[in-house]
Fold these 4 entries.
Entry 1:
Amino acid sequence: MDLTEATARVGVLRREIADHDHRYYALDAPSIPDAEYDRLMRELLALEAQYPALVTSDSPSQRVGGAPSAAFAPVTHAVPMLSLGNAFDDAEVRDFDRRVRGLTGEREIDYHAEPKFDGLAISLLYRDGVLVQAATRGDGSTGEDVTANIRTIAAIPLRLRNNPPALLEARGEVFMPRDGFARLNARQAGRGEKAFANPRNAAAGSLRQLDPRITAQRPLRFYCYGYGRVDGRLPDRHSERLDLLHGYGLPVCAQRQRVTGIDACVAYYVELGRLRADLPYEVDGVVYKVDRVDLQERLGFVSRAPRWALAHKFPAEEAVTVLENIEVQIGRTGAVTPVARLKPVFVGGVTVTNATLHNEDELRRKDVRIGDSVTVRRAGDVIPEVVGVVLERRPVDAQPFVMPTHCPVCGSDIVRVDGDAVSRCSGGLHCPAQIKAGIAHFANRRAMDIDGLGDKLIEQLVDRGLVHDVADLYQLDLPTLTGLERMAELSASNLMAAIGASKQTTLPRFIFALGIPLIGEEVARLLSAEFGDLETLLAQDWAELHARKQAIAKANQKARKHNVDHPERPALPVQDLPLRGIGPEITDRLSDFAADARNVEVIRRLLAAGIRFADNGAGQRNADAGSLALAGKTFVITGTFSQSREVITAALQELGAKVTGSVSKNTDFVAVGDNPGSKASKAAELGVTTLNETALLALLQARPGSGS
Ligand code: 5U1
C-alpha cells in the first residue's frame, strides 16, 4: 500500500475505531465482536508503524500511553469545581427540598437524580472538539494536569462528534468497574505487588501514575455528569444539557432520571440502593440536582457547594473497628475458617460483629492480630470480611493468632494435608458443626431450597437430637416444630410446607445438595447429564471408567497423528469420551462417598421420604448461576500447581467460571503454574490476564464460601 492509500485507510480505520468506542462506552451498544475490533486496531497500528508520519495525537492507537513525565503541572479551573453538600437520611433530604422550594418560591421541583460514582472528579477541556487538557479537581480552584493519563482511557473521546461548540469543558467521574478492579488486584498479587484496597483507590492510583503506559493498562471508565465553561447556547434544563453532552459522544450514565418532587427522589434512592450491589461499578450515593438551570442560578452557592444539588449518601461499605478476638468456625467438609470477633461497627447498612478472615494463610498474609484496628468491608449481601490492618493503630500488645490443634466443637484433631489450602477438623460426621453446616448446605437456595430453615433452627434441631442427618428433616412433624424456641405455628407450618415442596427437585440440585467435596453445581450438572440417574451414578466402577477414558484419549491421539500423516484417508475419532471435565480427584471423592454405607443409607431414606427428580438438568443452567462470583468468566489452566488441576477446576466451576482447554481472545484469565505450556505465551501474545498460583488462590479465597 502506498502513502496515499495508507493515508486514506488510516482515516477510515480511525473513524471506525472511534465509532466502535462510542458505541461501546457512550451508547452501551457494541456492534462488533472484540476480535473484530482488535483486528481493526492491529491494522491501524501496522499502518502507523509503516508510515510514522501518519501518527496523530488523536489516533486511537495513542491510547497506549506516551513517555513518563516528572510531575503533574497545576491547572487553574476557569469555573471552580464545586463539592456537594451531603445528606445521610431522609430528613436531611426533605430539609434540602424545603430550602430549595422556599428560596425559589416554587411549589414543586423537578430534580435530576443520578448515581454518585465512587471515583475521581475530572475536567476535560475540548477545543474545536479535540481533547486538549484534562485536570483533576484538586482543591476546586487548582487541579493537576493529567492529560497524558486521561488520553489512555478508551471511554473518553479524543474528539467529539456532532458539531460541538468551539470550547467545551466536560466534567465527570473517572472510576474503575468492579470486574476490572478484581482483575487488576489478581494481577498485582500475581506479580507480588500490593493489592488496592478498593476500586476508588485503584482509580486514583492509576490516574496519579507519572507513566501513562501504566495508566493505559488500568481498566478505567468515565461518566460525564456536568460541565464547566461552554461557548454557545445550552438548553434550559440540566437533564437536556446532559443529553446534549451525550450527543457529542461523551458517556453519560443511563441510570439517571428526571423526577418531580422529593418523594420521587427518595424512591429513586431506594431503588438504586436495591440495585447497588449488582451495579458493575461502585456508587456511594445519589446526587439530586434542580433540573431547571434558571432556578439553579437563582439558588447559587454557599461555601463552594451549590444550593441546587445534594449528595444523598448510601451507608459506607467499609469501616474501621477493633478486632477483639479470633475464633474458628468449622464448615461442612471440616474446613476451619478463622472468624474475627469485632467491636460492633455499622457498615454496609447493618451492625457487623463478625467477619471472615478466610483461612490461616490469608490471615498470616494480612498479618492480622488480636487487638488490631482493622478495615471491615460489607458490600451487598456478601459475608463481611476483614480487608486489612490499620498498622499505625497497632497496640504494642497485639497478639498473633495461634491455630488450634483440636476442633473447638468435637475435640477431634485439626489437620492440614499437604496441598490443601485449609486445615480441617478430622471429626467427620461425629462433629456437630459439620453436621449443621451440611444441613445448611442441603437446605440452601441453590440446593434443596428449603425456605425458613436457617442456622438458628438447624442449631436447635441438631442440639436437641431431633435431626442427625439431612434425611431426618423429612421425618419432622408440626408438633415437634412448634415445640421449638421462637417457632410460631405459622412459621412451623410454612417450614413444613417448604420441606414438602423441596421433595420435588432436580437431579443436579440433589447431587449438589449432598455436599460431596469438590462437587459444586457445575460438576453436579455434568454428572447428571453424563449418568442420567442417581443409581447409575452411584453404581459406577470409577477405576474402570478412568481406564476407558484413558484408552479413548489415546486412540483419539493416535487418530489425530494418523490424520496428519495420511490426510487422504483420515481415521474417525473414537466418539463419546466419558467424564468430560470430571477427573480422578472428583471421582475418588464420589467413590469414597458411595463406598460409605452411611451415605447410601441417607440417600435411601431421602428417596423413601418421597424425593423425586423432575429432570436430569442436562443443558439447563441454574437460574442463580449468573449471580456467582466468577459467572461468565472463562479460565484456562496451564502448568502444575500445588493442588491438582481437577481441584482447581472444580473450585472455579463452583464460583460459576467456565474452564476451557485453549486460550483465545475470549479467555478472561490463564492460570499459570510451574513449567507452563505454550498456553502461557499465547496468553501474553493476546494480552489475556495471567494468574500465578498465589493470585489464583487469592481470587478463589476472596469469595465467601469457597475452599470449605
Ligand atoms: N453524578 C454526579 N456526581 N457529582 C459529583 N453529579 C455530580 N455533581 C457534582 C459532583 C461533585 O457537582 C456538581 C453538582 C457541582
Entry 2:
Amino acid sequence: IRQSNKSRKSECYVMDKGNKMKNLRINNRFTAELPADPDLTNEVRQVKNTLFSYVNPVKPSNPKLIHASEEVVDLVGISKDEIHSEEFLNIFSGKEILPESKPYAMCYAGHQFGNWAGQLGDGRAINLTEVENNNQFYTLQLKGAGKTPYSRTADGLAVLRSSIREYLCAEAMYHLGVPTTRSLSLVLSGDQVLRDVLYNGNPAYEKGAIVCRVAPSFIRFGSFEMLTARNELKNLKQFVEYTIQHYFPEIKGEPKEQYLQFFQKVADTTREMILHWQRVGFVHGVMNTDNMSVHGITIDYGPYGWLENYDPDWTPNTTDRQNRRYRFGNQPQVAQWNLFQLANALYPLINEAAPLEKILDSFIIEFDSEYKEMFLSKLGLFTSSEADDKIIKGLEEILQLSETDMTIFFRNLSKIKKDDSVEQAFEKVEYAFYIPEEIKGNVLDAWQKWFAVYLKRLNSELLSDEERILKMNQVNPKYVLRNYMAQLAIDAADKEDYSLVDELFQLLKNPYDEQPEFEKWFAKRPDWARTKVGCSMLSCSS
Ligand code: AMP
Ligand code: MG
C-alpha cells in the first residue's frame, strides 16, 4: 500500500497492485472525457466550467462490513469470495482506493421543492470508479465518505439509520421490478456523526455508515441544469453528446434531432419509473431535480416511504408536510415538472420550444393511459374498456373512506373467485382494514356496491381463477419494505445485531412469492409505528 497524491490532502491510500479484485475492469470514461476541476483542494466553493472535482474519500477510523449484496458484487465483476477480504472492506469504506482510479465528486445543480437552488453537487457522495463488466458500465459510488467541494455547510457523512434505509430499499425496489440504483455494500465507519433528526434543536451522535451504490451513471437532470444556468454551453453540448454516445447509442440523426430523442427517452423511462412507484405504493419524498436520474432509475433514497393505508395525499417527508409537493398522488405531475426543467436546460441546444413542449404534453396523456392499464392489472383485469374508468375511480375513493392497507388489499384481492358472492369476496380483503369497526353503514354499502360491479366485471374476463391469481401476484407484491420494518432493522443494528438487516434483505429478494416462513411481515403497520419517528415521520436529516 502506498500513499496517494498528497496534494489532494486526503488520508487515503492506493491499494497495492497484485491485489485481489483483479477481475474488476476499470474504465473511467467520465473523468477521461469530460472537463475536470483543475483545483485539487478539497474546499467548499463554486466549481465552474467543469463537471467534477477529484476528491478522495475520508479514511474511516474503524470500518466494519455489515452487509454486501452478492448479486451486485457479481454484477460489477468482483468475485463473491472476496466479500470478506480486507481489500473489500478497505475499498468500500473509502480507506483505500483502487489502483488506476481517481475518485471524484460530480458537480450539479437543481430545483429543490420547486425553487432554484444553484450549485449542489455530490456533497457526500464520491464516485470511486467506473467499471465495465459483460458489456455494461457501472459507476461505483460511496455515499457518506466525507467532505467534497460540494459539501456546502454539511459534513459529508451519513448515519447508519439512513444508510440501512438506502441499502435495503434500493435492492428491494430492484426485486420488485422498479428501475433503481443498486446497493453493493453497507459498512460502518466507526465514526460518530452529529444529527438533529427532527430539526428541533436536539442534535445527538449517531453511528456513521457508508453505502456503496451502483448505477450506469449518476447523471441527473440537475447536471444539465447547472451548465445552462451558468451559460456554459460548450460544456452542455459536450456533456449531452457524451451522455447520448455512451448511454443512448441507439439515438442517431442530426444533432438537434438527437437531443430531442434524448429528451424523449428520459421522459419515457421517467414515466415508466413513476408508474412502478404508483403500482407498489412507493413515495420518494424528495423529487428535487438533483434527485432525478437521466436513466429513469430511482435514485437518492432519503425520507422515502411506502403507503400503508392508501392515501394519495401522504408524504413521509416532514420537511414537506405543509405543501405536500411530493405526496404519493402528485408524483406523476412532479415528474413532468422536473422534465420541464430538463427541457429548459436542453433548450439552448435545440432553440425550439414546440417539440420539447410536445413531449412534455404527451407525458401526462401517456401516463394516464398506462396508469389505467397498470391499475387494471392490479385488479386482475387484463382487457380494458371505457367502463373500467369508473371501477378504478370508485376503488380509489373507497380505499380512502377508512384506512385500508394498499399492499394487503391488492394481494388478497387475487384470492377472489369468479363465482364468489359479494360477501365472500369482501371477506377476503377484510384483513386490509386498519379500523374494522369503521366498515359499516355508508362505507360498507360503498364496498358492497363496488364488489358487485367488480365481480360482474371479473366474469367478463377470459382467464380462469387460477390463471388470474398467478398474473395478479406478479404485479401486487406480498412484501414491501414498510417503514416500521426498516426501523426495526435499524434499532437492532444500533445494538450491533444485524440479523434483521439480513432477514429483510433476503425476504425482499422475492417480494412476489408467498414465502410462508416470512408471513409475519405480511402485516399491517403495528399501532406503535403510527406516530414513531422513522416510521411515519422522516426528515431529510440523514
Ligand atoms: P439530498 O436532499 O440528500 O439529495 O441532498 C441535497 C444536496 O445536499 C446534495 O448536494 C447532497 O450532496 C447534499 N448533502 C446532503 N447531505 C449532506 C451531508 N451530510 N454532507 C454534505 N452534503 C450533503
Ligand atoms: Mg440528492
Entry 3:
Amino acid sequence: MLKLKNVSKFYYNKGVIASGFNKINIEFNMGEFVAIVGESGSGKSTLLNVISGLDSYEEGEMYINGEETSHYREVDFEEYRKKYVSNIFQNFNLVNSYTVYQNIELVLLLNGYKRKEVKTKVLELIDKVGLKKYRKTKVSKLSGGQKQRVAIARALAKDTPIIVADEPTGNLDSKSAKDVIKLLKDISKDKLVIVVTHNFSEIEDIATRIVKMHDGKIVSDKTVVETDKVEENIENNNKNIGFFNMIRLGLRNTFNIIPKFVLIFIVFLFVTVSLLSEYGSMQKDEYEEGKLGVNYFFHDTRDTRIVIKKKDGSAINKEEFDEIRKLDNVDLVIENDIMLDTDVWFQTTDDSYFNMNGTLRNIDSFDGKLDYGRMPEADNEVVYVVDEYDYYFNEKQTEAINKTYYYNGDSSSYSIKVVGVKYKNESVFSNGSGNLIYGSSNLLNKYMKDINRAHSNVIVSINGKNHESYDSPGSNFDIRTSDRVAKGNVYVPESMNYLCKDYDCRWEWLGIKVNNLYFNDRIDLYITNTYNDKNINSLLWINKDSENNGSIFVNPDDFNYLFNKDSYQASVFAKHVNNVDEVSNELDKLGYSTLQIRKTLDNMLGEAVKAIKILKLVVTVVLVVTLFFISYFVIKLILKSRNVYFSTLRILGANAKHIKRILDIELFFDASLAYLAYMIAILLVKYKVIYVKFINNILEYLGMRDYILMYVILIIMSYLISTRYARKIFNKSAMKSYREEV
Ligand code: ADP
Ligand code: MG
C-alpha cells in the first residue's frame, strides 16, 4: 500500500540544514495498526508528515498503491491527501470558530458531497463519536478529549484508506486518552492506521506492529499480530466542492468571526469612500472646467442642452414632440431651437433710444422672482432678464417699462412692451447667454420667421437671372411684407426695371428660393406693380423716406409660407447634467441625431488643461494603487488568524484553487456590503434624510455609470487582494505554512 525506499527529509532553515530522518525503508499494508515510538526529536512527526503528503521529501522514493511520488508537485499532493490520508493531530487542528457540525460538514463539502447527503452523514458521525449533545457547540468551547473526537469524526468523514495520528492523546487526560484510543481502534478495521505516541502502554494491546525510531532512523520494526491481507479497494473520489457549497462556505466565513468581519468591512468602506470622493471631485473639476469653455456657434450653452434633428432630415411634428416630452428626465423641449442662439434687437422709435436685446425664451420656462413689474398677460408683453448695470433698465426703470419697443427699431414691424424685469444672477450669466426676453409662444412664433429669414440664404430670380437677397431693409433684393400686396403677387421698385425686358418688370415672374440648414423651398410670384418715390405711399402706404423703400414687397402669407416652417431642429433640456447621456441615447433610439452642447465647449486653456488632466489621472491611479496596498496589508493582518484555517483546509485535502475561490467569495461579500452601506448613506443624503457635507459635494457629479464603475473597481481590488494573499500562503507546502502560524 505505502512503501518508502531510502527516503530522507531535510529541513532548510536560513542556510542551516537539519535532518528530519535519514534513508528510511519501510512498507505499510492495509489492515495494520502501526505504532511508531521513539524519543522526542527522533523524526516521528516528520515521517508522518511526509507519509501524509503534507511535507516534501528530498531523497529516495515513496510509492502509494504502486505509484511513485517523487515527481509530485503541490497539486498532485493535494489529490493524494484527498484520496488517501486523513490526519489527526496532537493539537486537534479544528476550525475553532465553527461548530462541531460545521467542522465535520466542512470535509464533506470539500469532497464534493451534496447538501442532502451531508446532513445525515454528519449526524451519524457525531453520534458515532458520542457528541450528539454538542453538535451546535463551537469547537473552541469543548474539552481536549471532545475536540479529539471531533477530529476523529472528521477523519472518518473523509473516508480515506490511511489514517495518520500524531500523538493524538498528547494533550489529553488519561481517561479521555483511553476513549480516543478505543475510538481509533474501532475505526481501524480495513484501514491502515499509523499512530505516533510517547506513551506506548496505552496502545500496546491494540497495535499490530511496533516501529521504533532513533535519531532519524528506524531501529526496530516488529509485527506483533499477523494481520489478514486486506483487499485494497480504493474508491476513486475525484469529486470537488460544488459552486454553491463554495458560496455557502464563503458566506459562513464572512460572518463567522464578527470582529474580523467588521474590520474588513471598515477597510472596504474606507476604500469605497476614498474612491468615490476622488472620482467625484475629479468629475466635478472636469465639469467646472467645461463651464469655462466657450462655444462660438451656440448662444445658449446650458450643459443640459441637447440639439436634435431627425436622422431622415424631415420636420419634427407635434406627436413627435409630445413623445419626446414624455421621456424620463426631459425637463424642457424648445421646438424652435434656432431662437435660442439668435439675439434679437428691439428699440423705441422715438428719440429716447431705449433698447433691449437678447434671446427669446418661452415665458413657461421662466422661473424665479421678478425684481420689478409683473408677469405678462398679453401676447405682446414680455419679461426682460437683463444685466443689472444696464443703464436704461436700471437707472430709468419706470420709464423703460412704459415704452413700446419695435423689432429692429422698425416701426412697421412688431412691437412689444416690457412688463417685468429680473436682473441676471450668476447662474444665468454662466449659461454663456446674454440677456433673455421671455414672451408667450404666440409671440415667439411670430419672430420665428424673421429668425429663419436671417439664417437663410435667399435668392431672387428674375428674367432667368439669380440675385442674392440681403436681409436688411431697403438693401438690394431685400424682401418685406405688406398687406397691400395680394397673395401670389409681388411689388418691386422701379429701380429693378433694368433687369427686365423692355425695362419694365410688370407682368413678369419673380422666384424666391430659400435654402438653409434645414430646408429648401421656392415660390413664384407675379409682379403686378412697380413702385417709385412718388407712388410708394399710395400703393404700399409707406412713406418714401422709410428705410424699407427699395425692398421687394410680398404678401405676409407668402412670406410665412417660405419662412414659418415646421421645426427641423429642436433643443431638448435634460433635468440634470447627469441625465444628458441617458436622454441622448433615448433620443437616438427614437430616430434623432443628437449634439450635446456641453461637449461642444472648446476649452480655452487647451494644452494646459490636458496636462492637468493627465496629472489628475496619474494621481488617481496612484491613489488606487496605494489604496490597494494599504487594504492588502491591513486585510492580510486581519486574515492572519485565517492562515491556520486555510492550512487546515489543505490538510483536509482541499485544493488551493478552491480555497482561493472561497476566500474570493468572502471578500466579495465583505466588499459588496461595504459598498452597499455607502450607497445607502448616499441615498440618505440625496433624499435629505441626513446631511454629510463631503457626500453632498460630490453627489451631483456622479451618475449610475460612475457608481457601477467604482463598484467594479472595488470588486477587482478585492479579487486582487485575495489573489495576492493566496499566492503568499499557497506557494509553500501545507505543513510549512501551517507550522509558520502555530
Ligand atoms: P519527533 O516528532 O520524533 O519528536 P520531529 O520529527 O519533530 O521529531 O523532529 C525530527 C528532527 O527534525 C529533529 O531533530 C528536529 O529538530 C528536526 N525538525 C523538526 N521540524 C523542523 C523544522 N521545522 N525545521 C528544522 N528542523 C526541524
Ligand atoms: Mg513529534
Entry 4:
Amino acid sequence: MENFTYAISTRVYFGRDTLHNLEFEIPKRASRILFVYGSGSIKRLGVYEEVTAILKTHHIQYQELSGVQPNPRLDTVKEGIRLCRDHDLRFVLAAGGGSVIDSVKAIAAGVPYKGDPWDFFTGNAQVHNTLPIGTVLTVAGTGSEMNGNAVITNTTSQQKLAVRSDLLRPQFSILDPSFTFTVPREQTAAGVVDIFSHILEQYFSPTPDTYVQDRISESLLYTCMKYGPIALREPNNYNARAQLMWTSSLALNGLLTYGKITDWATHAIEHKVSAVTDVTHGIGLAILTPAWMEYVSKDDPAGRFIDYAQHIWGIDGRKKEAVVKKGIEKTKAFFASLGMPSRLKDVGVQESQLRDMAASIVASGDVGKFRRLNEDNVYTILKNAY
Ligand code: NZQ
Ligand code: ZN
C-alpha cells in the first residue's frame, strides 16, 4: 500500500426528509446564492418548490440558472459565472445529477478566476479558490456529490475534460434516495454501470498489497449487482435506491483510491465518445469496459483479472485464460441484463471517426495506469468496441 492523506470533507445528510437541512446549511454561509438545476425534473419532484420556499423563508436572495444539459456545457458554466459576478452571489447550490453538480463546481472555481474557466480543464490553470458549494442529489451514479471532480464539455473543440481539486468538494450534500424513484429506467441502469466502472477503474491497479481496498471494492460491486436489477424492476423500492445512492458516493469519494495507483483509461476513452456523440456516460462505459478488459487482461502478471473473475463472479477453473474470459463475459452479460447496448456503432459513432478519437484521447499523453495505452492501443479498443 502507498502512503496517503485521508480527507473527505463533505457533510452528508442521507435519507428520507433530509432536505430541510438546507435551512441552516445555507444561511450560515451566504445570503446571496446561485441556484442551479437541469431541465425540470426537480420541479416534477417537488424539490424546486421546497428549496425555493426555504430560501424565501430565510431571506436568501437567489438567482436561478436552469437548463443544465446532460454532458454539461462550458457555455452554461460561463453563464453561471456571469450571474454570480453581476449579482454578487457568494454560494452555489446544485439540485440534480452529476451534470448539474459538475457545472456548479466549474462555476464555483470560475468566479474568482480572471481567465477562461476552460483553463482548469486543459491544465493551464490550477484551482486556488472557489465559492462554497452545496448539493441536493437526484440521481445516483457519478459520486460528484462527495468528490472534487468536475467534467465539462467544450462543444467547440469537441472535448470533454475533467478537473480535480479537493477545493471542489461540496461543503454538504443532501442524499434522499426517494428523490431517485422517478429516474427513468435507462438512466438508472446507466448510473449502475457508472458506479460499477468507478469501482473497476480503482480495483484494476498496479499497486500490490491493497487487500482492504480490494475487499471494500468487491462489496460495492456486489451491491450494484444485487440492487441494480431490483431498482429497475421496482423503481420505488426505497432500500434498493438507498443502497445504490450510498454506493455511488462511496465508489468515488476517494475511499477506494487511498493507498494505490488507479487506472481511469476507460473513462478517458468514454469522455471522448460522449463529447463526439452526446451519449449518456454510463452507456458509453457499458460498451467500452468489456473492450478495455479484453485488451488489457492479456498482460496481467499480478492476476487481478483472476481475482475479479473468482471473487465477483464465482468462476473457478484450472485454466487461467478461461477464468479471465468468463469473468469478462459475465460483465458483458450483466450490462446487457440492465438493457445497455454493446457496440459503439449503436450509439452514433462512425467508424471513420475512430482514428481521430484515439489521437485526441492521448493528446496530452498515454492513458491508464494499470496498463498504459498509446494511440494505437486506444484505437484497437475503440475498433473492438465498434
Ligand atoms: O435535466 P434534469 O431535469 O435534471 O434531468 C436529468 C437528466 O436528463 C435526469 N434526472 C436527474 N434526476 C432525476 C432525473 N429524471 C427523473 N427523476 C430524477 N430524480 O437524468 C438525466 C441525466 O442527468 P445527469 O446529471 O446528466 O446524470 P449523471 O448524474 O449520470 O451525470 C452525468 C455527468 O457526470 C459526469 C459524466 O461524464 C456526465 O457528464 N461524471 C462526473 C463525475 C464526477 N464529477 O466525479 C464522474 C463520472 O465518471 C462522470 O464522468
Ligand atoms: Zn463515470
